[in-house]
Write a structure and sequence with these properties.
There is one protein chain. By secondary structure, this protein is an alpha+beta fold. The protein is elongated and about 90 Å long.
Amino acid sequence: MKFNWGTGIAIFYSSFVLIFLFVWYQSTKIDNSLVSNTYYQDDYQYQKKYDGMKNNIKNPMVINNKGSENIIFKFPNNQTSVKGTVKFLRPSDQSKDFKVAIEVNDNNEFVLSKSSMIAGPWDVSTSWTSNGKDYFNKTKLIK
């Protein structure tokens, strides 16, 4: 068989289709789920989170993740009757995400055990209300 321009075009188009099908097949293997199932509704609440972040900068909460088997959320002493939630988001696996209600002790701390968490990075979003003000903190932790 003689190689001419018609054969070259046929090989080129066939190669293009095969490469396109391979890329399409590989893209179906990627998990493209959103961080949150209510992503668009959460976006509308962003101003509230932003105001909470500003309040947290003025009167910061401290997270201690070093050393012990617990994560300690230390709220400022002037914040009383703290109520809220802590969301733990696992970037690599959405099924590992969980949410915990904040229950402070007498030292104005919320203590959470790391025993149920798997090792690796976590995105931690803390939102709480104290003395009629909303607060928000977002940080990354590594267990």
